[in-house]
Each structure stands twice: as C-alpha cells, then as structure tokens.
Amino acid sequence: MPETVISRLSESIFRNIKVVDSYLKANNLPGPSFDVDAPTSIDIGPDGEHVEEARVKALEGALELVDLLSGPMVALRPLTSGASLQAISRWDIANKVPIHGEASFTELARQCSVNAVDLRRVLRYAMCHHRLFHEPREGFVAHTLASRRLAEEPLLGDGLWLLGDMSWAATTRTVDALEKWQDQEPSHTAVALTMGKEASTYELIQQEPALAARFARAMTSVAKFSSRPPRLPRVNFVPTKPFQTLGTATVVDIGGSRGIDAVLLAGRYPNLNFIVQDLPPMIAGAEAAVPPALRSRVRFAPYSFFTPQTTVADAYVIKRCFHNWPDHYCVRIIKNQIPAMRRGTKIIVIDSLLPPPGTMSLAAERMARAFDMMMLTQLNGREREADDWRQIFRQADERFTITGMHPLASPADFGPSTGIIEVVWEG
Fold first, then answer.
1. For the O-methyltransferase C-terminal domain, which residue ranges apply (predicted)?
2. DSSP 33-49
3. Catalytic residue numbers?
C-alpha cells in the first residue's frame, strides 16, 4: 500500500524539526515556549538561513497535517471569533495584569467596567484560541509570552487595535458592502458601512487626529515586527538591486512617508539623490531624522499622487501604495506621473506580487488571502498577480514597458507577498 499523505507530512515535519532542534542544542538556545519569560523567537543567527527554512517548512507541513486530520467539517462549523481580541484591545487588559503576577477576573472586570462572568468567558476563549494570557489558578489571570509582549510594546497594541478591533468590526459587514455597492470605490467599503459615513478609510481617519495617529502607529507596527528571527536579514525591506544600475540619478520616492527607505538607499548609493514625496502631515519634521551626512541628498516635498507630477526625475519609486487602491485609481496614479517623465524614465513598484493560486505553500497563501480580504474590507484595494500589473500599466498608457517582475517576500514574513515591478517609459 502506498505511503499516505499524512505519513509523508509527518516525516517531513520531523526532518525539519530535527534541523531546528540541532541548531538549538548546538548553540545552547532554549526551545520555543509560551512561558512569560521565554524568548519571542528562536535566536537564529546570520549563519542559520537553512534553519529558518526548516522552521518554515515544518510550520507549513504542520498546518497541512492539522487540516487533514481535522477533516472538512471544521470549516463547515466555524467557531472562530474576533470578539476576544477586540475586547483585549479595547479594554487594554494586557496593561492591567502584572507582568510576573496575576489579577482576578473580578478585579479586571471592575477596572474594565464590564460584567465579571462575561470577561471571564472572553479571556478564556483568548487563552485557548490565541495563547493570550493563562489561568494559573482558578479565577486568576496571568501573562503568557504573547500577552506580555502586548503589555511591553505599545506598537503591538496599536497593531492589535487595527486588526483585532477596527478590522474585526468591519469584517462582518464586508458582504453587506459588496451587495450595496459594486463599483469598488474607496468610499464604498465595509469600514464605511460600519462607521455610517460614505467616505474612504483614509478620509475617515483624517477626520479624527487621534485616530490618524493610532493608524500610523499601527502601520509602523506591521512594518517593524515579523515572525522571522530578528538577527536574520529582513526579506520585506526595500530591495536595492533596481537601484544599482541607475548611476548618477535623481529618484523620487512617491508616498515615501518619513523617508526611511530613501535614507537607507542614499547611504548605500552616493550617486543617488532622493526626493521623498508625501502629504504634508506625513513629512512634517521628517528632515530632522535624516543623518546630517545625507541631508544634501535626501529632501522632502509635499505631493499627492492624485495630482499631476511636476518633479522631473530619472526614476520614481512607489512602495506599498497601490495595494491600498482599486485598479482604476492605480491607473490614475500612474497617468499622473507621465507629465514629468522623459523617455527611459523608470518606475520601480514595490508592492504585492502574488504567485498563481495553488503554487504557494498553505502558510504563504493563507497570509496572502488574508491581506487581500483586509484590503477589500478596509479600502477596496487588493493584492495583485503579474497579469494584474500588466493590465494596469497597459490601461495607463501603452508606452509603458514592464521590464521585470521579481518576488521578494518570505512566506514566513507577516505581510503580503511582495515583489518588484520594474517599468520603463518609452514615450
């Protein structure tokens, strides 16, 4: 009788776990744990790329194995709920529990001004489904590693607010929004329906300065924290290869926020000058954070990519902006760059670049589809495949030529599957 799928998966998981386990023993490192004092991730050094690859393969195999052993009825009887994450975020429970102590359900309920029985129900769900907190003795709550990180790192709290509170509330209205509006306008989203205002998420945020500030911190959290071990090179950072052949050039970073990528690239390529463009609130005071040695080559200028470009440059970079917008808005953004472009000018897009369905690992595809649904719920944007990019640039102008597409992201990274789309203006 041929070997079963579950047997092959089990053997693959075991082989890859042995690689990780051997590395832990050889380097006298602790194994993964949910204990409150455990390390956040396996401390894999620069010599351990093969160990990280084995960790990811073991994780992917384990996901497949769990699904196979669970069977299809699990999907047909969904029991998942975001309510516990929403409560933990909104009531700031992580900061109400001592790091190495405990707090009773009764005391926490009093501080949160909610019913103690209901708080207990919510937290016990989070304990078994999300590994957030645990109950060391009946009636009392203590931290796990995850909840401790939430208490000690404010940016993680902002990230949980975005995904576990704001997004969760809107997710339940996604289908309603799709039935109500079918035009893919940024103002016709589940978030707009939830907020009761026909406006885009960005417009809604801009109407409330405190909300805008928290959203910005949440975006920083998404960019800063990864499940990839911190001593390994980040995969989703700004790629440098497209900039190696520019020579002496001026590069405009459209939607470049605080100029983090421009500073990194200016430090590596002394022949490149950068102009970082973004809305005035985003770039206000950003010059002060630029190292003095680079300030002559990293400048800032206010600009909205929904207006015609007036700054002439050799290359324009647009990083992780397009996936926030529907296709017809992306076409509009690209058209707006044409007035300042000369023949041979490059556009370097760093954004989602999904492989065809079924060609990714289960872990990678789940992450990609999760981000795609999040873009749909919040913005009517989307994660795109190669053909989607070809169509967008073709609609913008036939004189654009895509000269290369290269995937970047690791399936273990938290975030969409990122790639580089290199384009030349032939007009």
1. 200-396
2. --STTS-SS----TT-H
3. 323
